[in-house]
Write a structure and sequence with these properties.
By secondary structure, the chain is mostly helical. It is built from 5 helices and no strands. Helix 1 packs antiparallel against helix 2.
Length: 166
């Protein structure tokens, strides 16, 4: 029986017991190969840690007030934009007020730009729909004329055949 005793602790199970991700990172960095398959214990440890982290984030979000919460789209936009103001030492209250005022003005400008973009998109959408409608009507008129021409040609052939027979 080569399997370890149930009381024996493997590095991954120690990390699970301690609840620390650092232990897991240390075991993977010691082994050297970043492309190795993790053991079952490591996989379950990572999964449990991710679950705990998500639960903690959810709990933190529940404690936030409405004006402090963000939407999904604002979080995605924030992840793609560079940070406007880096956190610095906030010893001076006046500096904080100036930074907040600057941030508020930047946010107001961004909101105004977004509103203009939305209006522009709506105008573009109405123009687009108008053009598509016009194209449809022109195509329908062409199809109608072609069908009428086919009918008239068929009638002309019938009359020519009737004249030949008579």
């Amino acid at each position: 029986d080569d399997s370890p005793a149930p009381d024996a602790a493997t590095p991954a199970s120690e990390g699970l017991q301690n609840g620390g991700f650092q232990e897991l990172e240390e075991t993977t960095s010691k082994q050297g190969n970043p492309f190795r398959m993790p053991s079952d214990d490591e996989v379950f440890l990572l999964r449990d840690m991710e679950r705990r982290k998500k639960a903690e984030e959810r709990d933190r979000a529940l404690l936030l007030k409405v004006h402090e919460k963000t939407t999904w789209s604002s979080r995605m936009a924030a992840s793609t934009k560079p940070v406007l103001l880096e956190p610095t030492e906030a010893d001076n209250v006046d500096e904080e007020k100036q930074k907040k005022a600057k941030l508020n003005s930047i946010m107001a400008k961004a909101n105004a730009a977004n509103a203009q973009e939305r209006r522009k998109e709506k105008e573009n959408m109405t123009d687009f729909i108008g053009k598509k409608r016009e194209m449809f009507l022109v195509q329908m008129a062409l199809d109608t004329k072609r069908a009428e021409i086919r009918k008239l040609e068929a009638q002309a052939r019938q009359r020519e055949e009737a004249l030949r027979k008579s």
